[in-house]
């Protein structure tokens, strides 16, 4: 099973032919700029479409702290996204309290473990909306 940087490498090399379909769901690549280093970091994340937008979850498996990629996009919301062979820039934003219930249901329909992850942590797990630029 693909995971971590091997997942990123195979996805990039094959335009997602390897790595987009994963464990009965779909994965995109999110590239953020390190808030301290300024270096690009690419993370494979489960996603769903919501209209023209892409939705991901900053779960980190229910860890008490946010994932690094989420902290990075909070510092600089302009991110790179790859879905299959489509590479584009997007603006990332945390879903509002009004949006979150609908988007959470969308994401748990594809990855039910998100509900379990939320029980493991006191932090509200953010849902992130990626809006294509241009």
Automatic annotation (TrEMBL):
Taken from the UniProt entry, a GO cellular component term is:
plasma membrane
Q: Which InterPro entries does this UniProt record tie to the protein?
A: F420H2_quin_Rdtase (IPR004378), Split_barrel_FMN-bd (IPR012349)
- Show the SUPFAM superfamilies listed in the entry: FMN-binding split barrel (SSF50475)
UniProt record similarity statement: Belongs to the F420H(2)-dependent quinone reductase family.
* Molecular function in Gene Ontology: coenzyme F420 binding; oxidoreductase activity
Q: What is this protein called?
A: Deazaflavin-dependent oxidoreductase, nitroreductase family
* Reactions mediated catalytically: oxidized coenzyme F420-(gamma-L-Glu)(n) + a quinol + H(+) = reduced coenzyme F420-(gamma-L-Glu)(n) + a quinone
Annotated organism of origin:
Nonomuraea jiangxiensis
């Amino acid at each position: 099973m693909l995971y971590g940087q091997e997942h990123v490498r195979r996805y990039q090399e094959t335009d997602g032919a390897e790595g987009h379909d994963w464990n009965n769901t779909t994965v995109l690549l999110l590239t953020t700029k390190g808030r301290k280093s300024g270096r690009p970091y690419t993370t494979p994340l489960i996603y769903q479409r919501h209209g023209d937008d892409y939705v991901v979850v900053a779960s980190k498996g229910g860890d008490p702290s946010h994932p690094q990629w989420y902290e990075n996009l909070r510092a600089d919301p302009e991110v790179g996204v790859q879905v299959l062979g489509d590479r584009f820039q997007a603006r990332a934003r945390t879903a509002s309290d009004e949006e979150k219930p609908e988007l959470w249901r969308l994401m748990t329909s594809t990855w039910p473990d998100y509900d379990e992850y939320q029980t493991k942590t006191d932090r509200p797990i953010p849902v992130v909306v990626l809006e294509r630029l241009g």
